[in-house]
UniProtKB/TrEMBL annotation:
Pfam families: Acetyltransf_1 (PF00583)
GO molecular function, one term: acyltransferase activity, transferring groups other than amino-acyl groups
Origin species: Sediminibacterium ginsengisoli
Protein name: N-acetyltransferase domain-containing protein
Domain N-acetyltransferase, chain residue ranges per copy: 49-102
Length: 235
């Protein structure tokens, strides 16, 4: 009989999974050839102790997946970071469950905060779009130096700094509780433009960033762009 996957808020009793989680984060990044901001097992365990993490497990205790919350800029911004799923459970839909649960937890703990993320993966971008995230420029993210310092362990850090933190291999996405599209709109936009998003992300990851220049301040209408896809390329 197939075991049920349980997705719940992590607690101090889950700390023994921390080493497994951080090992899988590192292995997954190496397999993709991309970089992540590394976190130690102690840091992951701290997030569990604080009730700022979500874990997925089988009924027998087998670890399935994980994600945690980080707050920046005096709690003005929140990131749902470190999403990872064990290889044997990928493409099972559990990543979406984890993201939904950590998103809901973030809204409860930080109701006024803007929730943002950086991703190199189209699958995560789709999940974020289903939650109501929009592609944004890096300038709309937190300017908290501690957050950006966390990127130092990423293999793409030199690229980030060469772009004056205005661009990198990751795509930035944001949910602003005070000003946002509805999840149905962001989800439909992603479906409509997914092939173009994929093409653009491949170009970025091929380090052809010179083909796309940030054009902040050229919109002129003071409001949201005509489409989310327009905003995605407005970098």
């Amino acid at each position: 009989m197939e075991q049920k996957i349980i997705v719940r808020i992590a607690n101090s009793g889950d700390a023994h999974y921390a080493q497994t989680i951080t090992d899988e984060m590192e292995a997954s990044a190496k397999a993709r050839g991309t970089g992540i901001a590394k976190r130690s097992p102690d840091y992951v365990a701290m997030k569990m102790n604080e009730g700022k993490a979500v874990i997925a497990l089988l009924e027998d205790g087998t670890w399935v997946g994980f994600c945690y919350i980080e707050a920046w800029g005096h709690d003005e911004f929140v990131a749902n970071s470190g999403l990872i799923v064990a290889p044997e459970f990928r493409k099972s839909g559990v990543a979406k469950q984890i993201k939904q649960t950590i998103f809901n937890l973030s809204r409860v703990k930080y109701p006024q905060a803007k929730i943002f993320g950086l991703t190199t993966g189209l699958a995560v971008m789709k999940i974020n779009s289903d939650l109501g995230y929009e592609p944004v420029t890096y300038s709309e993210l937190t300017d908290d130096e501690e957050f950006w310092a966390g990127c130092k362990s990423c293999v793409n850090y030199d690229i980030l700094m060469s772009k004056n933190r205005k661009n990198c291999m990751c795509t930035a996405m944001l949910y602003d509780p005070a000003d946002h599209y509805e999840p149905e709109e962001t989800s439909n936009d992603f479906k409509k433009n997914s092939k173009l998003y994929e093409r653009f992300m491949k170009i970025k990851q091929s380090k052809l960033l010179r083909l796309f220049r940030k054009r902040e301040g050229n919109g002129g209408n003071g409001g949201k762009p005509r489409s989310l896809f327009h905003h995605f390329f407005h970098i």
